[in-house]
Amino acid sequence: MKFQHSIFYNWFHISRVEGQSKRKASLIENKSWDGWNPIWSRLIPVRELFKKHALPLGSMWDSLGVYVMIYIPTGDVKYVGNGVVWKRKDNHTDAVEILSSNKDKSNLSSCGKKMFNFDKNVNNWGFRFCVLDNKDMAKDYEDVIRRSFNPPFNVQRMMNT
User: Fold this and answer.
1) CATH class of the 37-158 domain in this structure
2) I need a labelling partner for 137 at 20 to 30 A (CA). Which of 2, 33, 45, 62 fits?
3) Pairing relationship of beta strands 76-84 and 44-45 according to DSSP bridges
4) What is the three-class DSSP state of 91?
5) If we measure between CA atoms, which residue out of 119, 5, 137, 132 comes closest to residue 69?
6) What does the pLDDT average to over 53-68?
7) What's the whole-model pTM score?
8) How far apart are CA 64 and CA 85, in angstroms?
9) Residue 12's beta-bridge partner residues?
């Protein structure tokens, strides 16, 4: 029998999509995730400095996970995202500082722009994160967190990204 790539690919793709849908449903409905609570960092001011090997939760500079941007004076979650948490936090924070200066303002994060428009003082911003090290799980968990907080700086059409 000759190997039929298209049949195998279609079967694999359908199985993968079904598996992702089931995982997402169980995460949202909290069926198979009972008792699963990722460990979140403390509230970290966005400009707090860390030594190279002293990051919170034993995270690395390239740790993948979910993060929330928090307005410190009120404690409100303003944005939820996923990705390389330290890089994303820096992108948003750098945007606030760039908008406060005369530097090139192109290619700034939309979250950072909204942070700047809400409060230009970068010291009023903090973030929390959890490390998941799985992009699909991070995306799904981000959606769950977004639904819980309905953060004003997130764009609804960006959900499931």
Assistant:
1) alpha beta
2) 45
3) unpaired
4) helix
5) 119
6) 73
7) 0.73
8) 6
9) none
Residue 115: both structure tokens together = 């942070």
Residue matched to tokens 């929390």 = 128
- Beta strand extents in the chain (DSSP E only): 44-45, 64-71, 76-84, 125-131
Residue 158: both structure tokens together: 């960006």
Q: Indicate whether 53 pLDDT > 60.
A: no
Rounded mean pLDDT of 130-145?
A: 87
Sequence-distant (6+) residues with CB within 8 A of 110 are: 153, 155
Rounded Cα distance, 13 and 11, in Å? 6
Location of structure tokens 């690395």: 60
Q: In the predicted model, what is the mean pLDDT of the chain?
A: 76
